[in-house]
Amino acid sequence: xxxxxxVGKHEPLRVxxxxxxLRQPLEWLRRSWEDLREIGKPGLAHGVLIAVLGAVLLxxxxxxxxxxxxxxxxxxxxxxxxxxxxxxxxxxxxxxERLGFDESLQALSRNPxxxxxxxxxxxxxxxxxxxxxxxxxxxxxxxxxxxxAVALWGGGAGSLGPEQVLGYVGSxxxxxxxxxxxxxxxxxxxxxxxxxxxxxxxxxLRATFANLPAMLLWGALIVAVTAIxxxxxxxxxxxxxxxxxxxxxxxxxxxxx
Length: 257
Fold this sequence. Notes:
Layout: E1 2-5, E2 13-16, H1 24-39, H2 41-60, H3 65-77, H4 79-82, H5 84-95, H6 101-104, H7 106-110, H8 112-138, H9 148-153, H10 162-183, H11 186-193, H12 197-210, H13 212-231, H14 237-255
Antiparallel strand pairs: 1-2
Helix pairs in contact: 1-14, 2-3, 2-14, 3-8, 3-10, 5-11, 5-14, 8-10, 11-12, 13-14
């Protein structure tokens, strides 16, 4: 499958979508584990930053279960753009270029407009989820959104029942699936070929639907590995974030020609 994507005002870039076997996501994780061992400290530094950001969001949302769930969901929704430096490190290792934390930040200057637009899209999705979830709680689930006082000082953490929590998580899962579909190869495509955000999103959607069985497995693996990061109180996220970031690069290399 081939599609054209434009890069700035240049000629359209021909992008071929490859088909991969069902078990290919396991290979992406295997390769990313090798990257994790070889790249070492620069990748772990990104993992520390991502884990600290998650901890800050959880502390801010710890006053109410709704805010905690919203913080976790928002954190995961903007997660793809946080892998930019990690994708750059994986690219550099493959190209045998210098590896370092400063070098990983060069990805931000390679296509700042595309990355900024993509980050804006994810931030908008996270904001819309925050607002939409309030409507879901108050209407479909018959639960109240915490007041400003509760949000600031705590209280009312047990106001959501099991059915309400399940409905809330289910709604978030649908949105997470959408974000996964539009971001599966977006960041690597933007830093490697300087694609625009809209073109990278379209390529991600095409790659997802052309490889649906493998993408379902990949999504399940991401959820499982990310859960380890949260179960360990985000300590594991120091290693989980680089692992998934590097795997994203390898997914891109297999899915896009």
